[in-house]
């Protein structure tokens, strides 16, 4: 008897209906005894009863629809409605009506609940699918394509044609088609696409997974058990024959697994195929006219012995009419497995097994890139995706010259594996580092992990730090060497490339690919700074790319940018100062591009001035890179005012003047910066006299306050010096000399009369570095006074000076006066005037 998939449920439903019809009274009495009386006899009808029943039935419907298969639900609804119908018209029952809907009885709720199950299951399934596809927070599964809509490589056209020809073929023996492709190239997806095109009642589709069988001995038994169960949907009689036939084959003696016996099966016409069972199965399958398509995937996952067993099934023991085999494998691997078992196995052996072998259709050139784009778009920020789409794709992935990044990803599986690895890194440091650098480095790590480790371990060999004056401008550049294969003197290649060429295990294409990625990572040169300030080229961020996290000594670029954008930089400065990140923050502030617009320029310069005070307080007044800041504010050739101030030099001058005017004690940062600006001579937006006026203000504010002539006040005085030139004996030559600013010198003489001059006196003494007993008074100090006697009188008559210090200093003064202050004199300083030896 020939059955289709709907025959058996219809028969069972009919038998169930007949049972209810003929035994309706016993069934009703049984229900009354075990269900109605114990549970519902004492329940009173009413609104609350209705509401509780609604809630219970909804929960049951939700749980059933969510937890059961669609097939189970169809059958439950079918049998349940039959049962409901017979009981609803059964005169045995007296039904009570609902209090909330008097048109319905309580028993009608059973039917309503059943009718809700199927649509509810579709809704829940769709929600589950949406959640699964829309949630990109976790890893991506390397799932094979199961639907034409997911066919990103457009192989469904070829799959459809293969399916069409299978349906048209009339085969007396099995027809085996091999789908050839390397591991991860998409064979499973292609088989699924063929499978999906084989629709209709005339096709029975079976998927057999031999690698799950566990051993060669069980492959045959499990194959025929699966075939028998599936064929039961077509014909129950042939199903039992196949089951019996398979069990008999599984009981063959050990000689059936002998490889010499197997190697002879192709020519053995009197083997298992001559059995009556085999002939009967073959005749019945031919008579049905239905195609049986058996898909066997991942043949190349099996051990050689298991591969042999599958090939034997295809060619001999299951070589039935109307049967098609679709088998996916890497041909090189399978041929190697055959040869490993028998050296005599020829390379054309598979030609005797498979009537047709189809290499996997090649993907289009940009297919992997399109897939990578789609995956990245789901997980990175819009700003980062714009970098990938607008910069990396045109300049790297589609380049056919030096880079060709797409060569890293060779197949669809590579894209999934790369994205899963990249998700981890991007979540950890994606907002701390440059996106382009991160992608390039992760491409290297994905395909060449050993080279990735090499770049980190030997970066001091392959890279050198550009010896720029300013620390914030220093960055790594590739070390270039002469290309030995070139005749041009100017031709250079990276040392990195020459090194990996000598490793010996990389192909020329891989060397070229790696060199392109490396040069794109570290693309700064003598004439070009890396644009992104959190690039891997900058020492401030290099380690983070490999560490995947910030250490306590790392500056967060994410937090820096957030403070920059929100206007909370003052709070961020306080945080960095209290956590020992003041050096890193100053480097990052100095790196910031200040040529965007006037507002941004003034904002950054204000912050540098404000944090500069903290910086010199924590480090020293000489540790700051004043020359770099001078370059930023000097307005060379009116560049700043022309670009940002619409040539309004007065507006720029007011801004700079306000910065120096708003300085706060102890004024060390601003005073030293003015010294460096003044040293450049005329040309700054502030005149020399205006800058000196600021220094005079700093000095007098400090001296006039509680600081008096403190060490900090003396540094302000010293920083207000001016340089001048004295002609030398040779024509055109001159000597560089300096002196204290006259206006500050006049004020200092006033302070020496009534303030404690101890720090000034200490400052004025110079001791010989080799012989600390030798000392003299700085020439520049003596030049402040019209005559030495004027200075001596101020010291001798100062009422605030300690007597011992006064006495010792006057002793030194008098000794030096004997030589007209032209040479050292010997003196053993015992008071605070003695300066301890440094180091």
Give the C-level CATH assignment of the domain at 148-359: Alpha Beta
Distance between the termini: 106 Å
* CATH architecture annotation of the domain at 148-359: 3-Layer(aba) Sandwich
Radius of gyration: 45 Å
* Class per helix and strand makeup: alpha/beta
Largest sheet: 5 strands, parallel
On the 0 to 100 scale, the average pLDDT is: 81
Side-by-side strand order of the widest sheet: 2-3-4-1-5
Task: Kindly identify the CATH topology of the domain at 148-359.
Answer: Rossmann fold
Task: Choose one word for the global shape.
Answer: elongated
How big a fraction of the residues is strand?
A: 5-15%
Total helix count?
A: 38
Under CATH, the homologous superfamily of the domain at 148-359 reads P-loop containing nucleotide triphosphate hydrolases
Which spans of ≥5 residues are poorly predicted at pLDDT below 50? 1-5, 130-135, 252-271
Number of E strands: 14
Helix content: 55-70%
Protein name: AAA family ATPase
Transmembrane segments: 7-27, 47-65, 72-93
InterPro entries: KAP_P-loop, NTPase_KAP_P-loop, P-loop_NTPase
Organism: Pedobacter fastidiosus
Question: Strands, helices and their partners?
Answer:
Layout: H1 7-22, H2 24-40, H3 47-67, H4 70-88, H5 108-134, H6 156-168, E1 175-180, H7 187-197, E2 203-208, H8 216-231, H9 236-250, H10 259-263, H11 276-288, E3 291-296, H12 304-317, E4 323-329, H13 331-341, H14 349-353, E5 356-359, H15 367-379, H16 382-397, H17 412-429, H18 435-447, H19 449-457, H20 459-462, E6 463-465, E7 476-478, E8 480-482, E9 492-494, H21 495-501, H22 508-521, H23 539-547, H24 557-566, H25 569-578, H26 582-591, H27 598-618, H28 626-633, H29 639-644, H30 649-661, H31 668-679, H32 688-704, H33 711-719, E10 721-727, E11 734-740, H34 742-754, H35 758-764, E12 765-767, E13 774-777, H36 779-782, H37 788-797, H38 803-817, E14 825-826
Parallel strand pairs: 1-4, 1-5, 2-3, 3-4
Antiparallel strand pairs: 6-7, 8-9, 10-11, 12-13, 13-14
Keywords: Membrane, Transmembrane, Transmembrane helix
Domain KAP NTPase: 158-428
Transmembrane segments: 7-27, 47-65, 72-93
